[in-house]
Amino acid sequence: MVSSVRTVLGDVRPEDLGVCDAHDHLFLSSPQLPGRELGDATAARAELEAFRAAGGSSVVQWTPWGMGRRAADLPLLSRAAGVHVVCATGLHQAAHYTTQLLDELRGRLADVFVSELTEGIGTSGVRAGIVKVAGGFHALDTHARWTMIAAAEAHHATGAPIAVHLEMGTGALDVFDLLCSELGVPPHRVILGHLNRSPDLVVQRQAAEAGCWLAFDGPSRAHHTTDWRMPRAVQALAEAGFGHRLLLGGDTVVAGARSVDGGPGMPYLLRRVRPRLALELGEELTNRVLTENPGRAFAVEWR
After folding, report:
1. What is the domain count for the chain?
2. How far is it, in rounded angstroms, from Cα 198 to Cα 194?
3. Beta strand 88-90 with 84-86: parallel, antiparallel or unpaired?
4. Best exposed site among 51, 74, 79, 154 by fewest CB in 10 Å?
5. 102 with 94: CB under 8 angstroms?
6. 85-114 average pLDDT score
7. CA dist 233 to 188, 219, 230, 270, Å?
8. Residue 33 in contact with residue 256, Cβ under 8 Å?
9. Which parts are annotated binding residues for Zn(2+)?
10. Any residues with CB less than 8 A from the CB of 283 and at least 6 apart, and which?
11. Residue 113: which CATH number?
12. Residue 14: pLDDT band by 50, 70, 90 thresholds?
């Protein structure tokens, strides 16, 4: 069986991903972001095209179930912009959903994840390529444990990688303890997101030593006070021998953050972050973090 990355247009070889934004959003809506939703397909296409013009080739959208991911629109956008797009299944923190929506999933969450990974999302025919879940601030509450148990079941059934939102960048080791130590998910199938938001070099190194992927994303208006530390954190990890565990993403979550709406958006990753990292890591390793690493992180032997 050959490893492949599951995109919205079908499975592709890891080496065909090219330059990858490993954590971003084309569409996203939540009660936590009233009036700032990513819901405009024309703007989403323009953003993808701007990313492509900057040298980008693929985007992994971490928007999970029930948060306006608009799976049916993704193949059209991917073709039009000439950019590979990976779609997520999964579930975010409870605050992003109504009680009614969560009640609909009781007792069948893992089945929903597996179905969206293998059969497709609704009537769109689009199959998800990752499971996205979320932890809490320095802890895992009942909701987080419920979603991660379901994600682990989905992984064991399909091989899918699990991408984890770390609240304020915290709780990485708690996630590892649950998903890997208790639930048997191989560490190299776990992607820890937002590590730049809590620049704890000890925890970052421990997570890397455990074998997880470390995703650094931004810039973020809410977390700009830690954004500037990211290059040095990435450099420290690379010097410690963990350059092969690093991923980079933009994490555009509100309309005003898009480059086509006046924000940094997806192109910022290549326009500003890439040359900044090249000063710390060198061109060779920076290119590997943007190309080879995502191919290895998101490619699996699908079951």
Report:
1. 1
2. 8
3. unpaired
4. 79
5. yes
6. 97
7. 20, 15, 5, 18
8. no
9. 23, 25, 132, 165, 194, 251
10. none
11. 3.20.20.140
12. very high
What pLDDT shows up at residue 292? 98
Is residue 212 within 8 A of residue 176, CB to CB? The reply is: yes
> Looking up tokens 């915290």, which residue turns up?
170
What is the value of pTM for the model shown? 0.97
Asked if residue 231 belongs to a domain, the reply is: yes
10-12 and 5-7 strand pairing:
antiparallel
Q: Which two tokens stand for residue 234?
A: 């990435």
Residue 303 resides in a domain: no
Q: Is the pLDDT of residue 221 over 90?
A: no
Q: Which of 54, 6, 17 is nearest to 292 (CA)?
A: 17
Where in the sequence is the domain holding 244, given as residue range(s)? 5-298
At 85, which helix (H) or strand (E)?
strand 84-86
Task: Output the six-digit token pair for 178.
Answer: 């649950």
The CA distance from 51 to 62, in Å, is: 17
Strand order in the sheet with 20-24: 20-24, 58-61, 84-86
| pLDDT score of 40 more than 90 | yes
Asked if pLDDT for residue 222 goes beyond 80, the answer is no
Residue 293 lies in a domain: yes
* SS3 assignment, position 132: strand
Q: Specify burial of residue 24 (Cβ count, 10 A radius: 0-12, 13-18, 19+).
A: buried
pLDDT digits 0-9 by tens, 164-187: 999 999 999 999 999 999 999 999
Q: Torsions phi, psi of 90, nearest 5?
A: 115, -170
Phi first, then psi: give them for residue 17, nearest 5 degrees. -65, -35
Residue set of the binding site: 23, 25, 132, 165, 194, 251
Query: In which band, very low, low, confident or very high, does the pLDDT at 56 lie, cut at 50, 70 and 90?
Result: very high
Q: Where are the alpha helices (DSSP H) in 106-195?
A: 109-118, 142-158, 172-176
Checking if the pLDDT of 31 tops 90, the result is yes
Q: Is the pLDDT of residue 219 over 90?
A: no
Q: Are the C-beta atoms of residues 251 and 227 closer than 8 Å to each other?
A: no
